[in-house]
Specification:
- The structure holds two protein chains of two kinds.
- Chain A is an all-alpha fold.
- Chain A is 73% helix and 0% strand.
- In chain A, helix 10 packs parallel to helix 12, helix 32 packs antiparallel against helix 33 and helix 33 packs antiparallel against helix 34.
- The radius of gyration of chain A is 33 Å and the shape is elongated.
- The two termini of chain A are 46 Å apart.
- Chain B is α+β, with helices and mostly antiparallel strands.
- Chain B folds into two domains: 130 residues, 2-Layer Sandwich (Alpha-Beta Plaits), CATH 3.30.70; 300 residues, Rossmann fold (3-Layer(aba) Sandwich), CATH 3.40.50.880.
- In chain B, a hairpin with a 5-residue loop joins strand 2 and strand 3.
- The longest helix of chain B is centred in the middle third of the chain and has 17 residues.
- Classes of the chains: A mainly alpha, B alpha+beta.
- Chains A and B meet through helix 13, helix 34 and helix 35 of A and helix 2 and helix 5 of B.
Amino acid sequence: MARGIARRLLLSAVVATSAAAALPAWTGARGALQALQAQQVQRDDPLAALMSKVLEAESSGRNREAIDGWRKVLAAGAVVPGVLGLERMFSILAQEDSLLPVFDSIMPRFPREAQLRSAQLRTLVTLGRHDEAARAFGEWRDLQPTDVAPYRDYARVLLFHNRAAAADTVLRQATAALGNTRALVLEIAQMRAGLGQWALSAESWREAMAEEPYYESATVFSLQPAPATARDGIRTELRKTGAPIGAAQALAFLEIAWGSARLGWQGLAVLAPSDTVIFIWKQFADEAERAKAWPTLRDALVAIHKARPDAATALRAAEAALKADDAVTALALAREGAAPLDATRRLAEVLPTELEALARLGRAREAEQLVREAVPALGEEGVRRFSRTLAWAWIRAGDIAKARLALADAPLAVEDAVSGWLALFDGDLVAAKAALRTTEAPGQDVVTALSLLNRTTVARAPVVGSAFLALARGDSATAARRFEESAREVNDAASLVVTLAARIETARKAEDRALALWQRVATQYATAPEAPEAQLEWARGLKRRGDSAGAREHLEHLILTYPGSALVPQARRELDALRMGTAE
Amino acid sequence: MNVDHPLMSSSPNRRARRAIALGALPFGARLLGALLLPALTLAPAALAAQHLLVPMDEVQTNHLKAYGVTFSALVDGVRSEWLINYRGGAFLLPDVPNLRRAAALAGVSFEAVGPDRVSQMRREIAEGNMDAVPLEKAPRIAVYTPPDSPPWDDAVTLALTYAGIKYEKIWDDDVLDTDLSQFDWIHLHHEDFTGQANKLFLGFRDAPWFIQARDRDLAMARSHGLADIPALKKAVADRLRAFVERGGFLFAMCGATETLELAVAAFNVDIAGPFADGTPMDPDADAKLKWDRSFAVQGARLEFAGGVNAMSDIDGHQVNVPARRQPLGTFTLFGFSAKFDPVASMLVQNHRTVIADYFGVTTSFMRKVLKPGVTVLAHEEGAPWVKYIHGSYGRGSWTYLGGHDPEDPQHNIGAPPTDLALHPNSPGYRLILNNVLFPAAKKKPLKT
């Protein structure tokens, strides 16, 4: 039942834009109460007092009392509020059939009252009395043959109940009877989405937004479920020349929902900046932030900052750039954002971001200098909070001794991630494991390290440490070599360290080295968890060399030998691609 | 134990052992063979007594490739059975290593079933609206398609390629100059047999691909001593008609259905617009059409307006005529008696009975123009059109499925190709593959 109410509310978000008449029944007692107050109903009016009391009962969940009250309101002559109130209550109690006698008695008296007709149609369709609903619609339509309301309201009810094909019939009747569907463009858009006619639906939404730009949210809601294969059709429709700006906005939001935020921003970035466009960009940035689409967020904020320079936007963009792993842009933006700020605000708002960016870039000396300059304002104690950042800067710069020195004044708990990494670089696997396993929100680097530390019982492994240190410094060639060498050191995780070496060599496009390493994992450690990955990568390496038959053998071997591996579906895809001669 | 089963012979095991000994198999096969060799050597009888049941209901992980696995069995000369109306049209295959391997590679679910379970299934099938149809021989398949067309240009080549079913491509030269009886099954897709290139002239006359196709077809016509493309395509259509008349199976989709009907009925009538052959359509063409020559349609009316992108009133949806275009709905497969109407039953085997519709140059077939003997396999409830039809003609049979691509409802020219790996359970594509497999069925005498 709660789900049903939620669905109603959700639908109202879509159709309410032009469905003011239907709103009172769907917005709940609190909304109705506010509406009543907004209408400044006189307190001394007995009917208004009664309605206020009933609404109070309704919003307090005293359903039976509210039903009695709405019956009294109805009897007092306030037919529409009375019926809509009863509709709400019976809907909550899943007793919609109790409304049928009410409609039987009032419809002959108010046959042209659109809100009552709508409520009747909603009730009949909800109860599955489709024939009666069709008859009720027919009566209403015959009374007002040139009015769009009967078609529109009935189509909406049908769409709400996922009866898109039936709604289609009604809308076709409307077209025939009214001569055009201009007034029904929303319903047609929704109906087409319901039927899976995504491109046509997008076309209707585009037309709707040309008239009323605020339909972009409804457009997003309606088109979001489109499958991947239908999305290009939607894109084509919403990007058509002459499409309103709302179409571009809707498409951008759809792209975020579809996991392709970058495409969304590309559509908005080409718009010439104006107050409206910048407002849309800001909304898009908020949505991109919610979706954690950091590179896209960075780009949007940079564009906003460029059009309307503002320190807060620049700093927000700098943080987004850091999250997007783009320390160079982050540093530039942080410094740009700092320019108009006074010294106090710079220290509070800019320094942490600037230091973080410098640390990631391995520019430890500059970071240290900045911290030193902050001492007069923040004090020795105040700058200690930057010790970890400085330590990371030195680690990235490859100077472990200075990293330790940076931490010396601010001893960390043994569980701290930095001390964990330092222990790992030293080859102290036990200490590293103890510290790293408690890391909050571990990144890929921590996961990789822990996967090794959890596999091995070896306590000290200096070569492993040097491999991770080389990786932290960005020296991938050395890292790969060291990981390969470390197989002798960590016998019980040898397959993993060779796999790490192979992954690095693959990423470096060192094809021969990578292939040899994958081959080693696949043959020497055939029962290890890394073996399926090695088979897949071996196949890919052979395919890149033009050896399709060899690639095929290894893909088949993977599928048949490791049927439980998560890589099997991917292997099947690549096997198909080989067979069909298509690129994968 | 089914001792009469041809796979009870030990020859596959002997062959497998020999191949392994000679190192003739690929690496994966050698490995699997090595693993299986002891089992084959020690317990051949126990292994051969088993069957593989390939369920085709919702349990199946890859319906489309299941057809490919069954087809591969037929290619290897291994007899199978199609269990009509049993678990979505399941397949019963002998449990041999090659098939297990093929199924595992393709990601097709199967269940190893012993003799008791097979007997129980047979009892169940005998008692219900179900039947077990033996599949004996892999049909020889030809797809009528331009030589340079990629597999994704046509839903059938896409389905066949994805399922791993081999086929030959034939084009006008092959149809006109070779013996089509070498094929059991010919498929047509979106060719316009009236020779008007689906009236794409209206929108694409300057497109390089359109010009290239027109020049290619014109050269082909002249090489056969024919004046123009309409004459060429009508000659091809008539050869295809004769192929069915002599016992072939023909399956057509999209625009090939409607235009084949028109071309066959208009063998001696000019129904092509001036943009195609330089002369206007015969103004009395409607009256001159010979519907006794066509497969499915009678009394259809031609579209005479050159600017209207439609051929006739056969198609219910008229997708390329904005003012007539009808929205897509869903279509429902009919159920047939498996024992009394096995062909129609085979053609509608599916794990779904209601399928979302999809457009094509010809999307559907108006009921009012169908010949009385046509079997309607699927229709849209309440609509004046049907989706999927079948019938006999001479000693052969034909099947028409409206629409272009079951997983691309709106299909536009230039749209990205459908990736069937994303639709391994596509009920629409199953209809295509039912047609591929049904010519393999051994004809049983009807119980009427």
